Amino acid sequence: MATKGSGLQAKVSRMLSKDFGKPILKPNKPLALRNEVANRKLRQGEASCLTEMSVMMACWKQSEFNHAACTQEVQAFQRCTALAQAERKARMGQESSGQGGRLHPKQANTLLKRHPNLYREI
Amino acid sequence: VLPVRWTRYNPYYLEPEPSREVYRIPVTELTDEQKAAQELKAVRPIKATPSGLTSSVFSDPTVSKFVNMMMEDGDKVLARSIITQTFESMKRKQVEKYHKAPATEKEGIECNPYTIFHQALENCKPIIGLISIQKGGKYYQVPTPLTDSRRRFLAMKWLITECRDNKHRRTHMYEKLSQELLAAFMNEGNVIKRKHDMHKMAEANRAFAHYRWW
């Protein structure tokens, strides 16, 4: 394993050096791992309770915004929103605890900050 | 701990319990959660009660919230006195109506100012709200469901701003408030109109409902 690593370093330094004609690599960032992980974007959700909303709005249009005539639809919409909010809360609580066997990017970043990769001589 | 801007209670502290019914339940009839809560109270410290919180039968959390929203420069005494004057004037108007009405209609007239206040607030609460969402460089007004606290806040805010701005300047605040509350109780008036306008805008923009991602 140690021999494999040293062979790679020799190859990389050969590609960077100007002694053997033009350098093959011209990196603008250091060729080493950074001490942080990219923040994974949360998966795109869709709007909740759209059907209930559209049903309620159709009822409103029919009865010209007479709210007394639409109590059933309004109650259904409110029930739906309450459910959606409870679901969202449960999902938020669950996400901060575990990411399906993987570490959350924020947690990974805190760990890496504590034990960083040293690629510069200090 | 006084409520200074940057101070915060340690999350360890528990909320105070003002209602007497909780303490009157005999020990045998407590549920498991209540027993656990009682045991926790013996070990954990409790936050100081805010001055607006009472255990009296006359205290109403909605009225307290309304008083706080009307308060300016921390003058709670003035805000509270305005509200009491409002309730008094509402009661006077309703009792006058009651005595002038024929016997058949007497039962339909509501005299309790607290029920009128609660019903008027319910009538003013919007069911659906609008949120500004940016998509493709433009801002769209997207219809979205609202939480109960947000709806209550909007209803109270509309009432207060409407009374402050759109009335004759020489009428007292309690007079303006009582007129607006009685109108809202009957589902008339400017606040109800504003609620309907909000609903109509939401209905007009229902095509943009898909721009929401929650």
Automatic annotation (TrEMBL), chain B:
Domain Small ribosomal subunit protein uS7: 51-206
CDD domains reported in the protein's UniProt record: uS7_Mitochondria_Mammalian
Matches recorded under SUPFAM superfamilies: Ribosomal protein S7
Cell location: Mitochondrion
Segments passing through the bilayer: none
The keyword Phosphoprotein is annotated on this UniProt entry: no
Keywords assigned: Mitochondrion, Ribonucleoprotein, Ribosomal protein, Transit peptide
Coiled coil: none
Protein's organism: Acipenser ruthenus (Sterlet sturgeon)
PANTHER family: RIBOSOMAL PROTEIN S7
A GO biological-process term: translation
Family from the record: Belongs to the universal ribosomal protein uS7 family.
InterPro entries associated with the record: Ribosomal_uS7, Ribosomal_uS7_dom, Ribosomal_uS7_dom_sf
High-level lineage: Eukaryota, Metazoa, Chordata, Craniata, Vertebrata
GO cellular component: mitochondrial inner membrane; mitochondrial small ribosomal subunit
Name the UniProt record assigns to this protein: Small ribosomal subunit protein uS7m
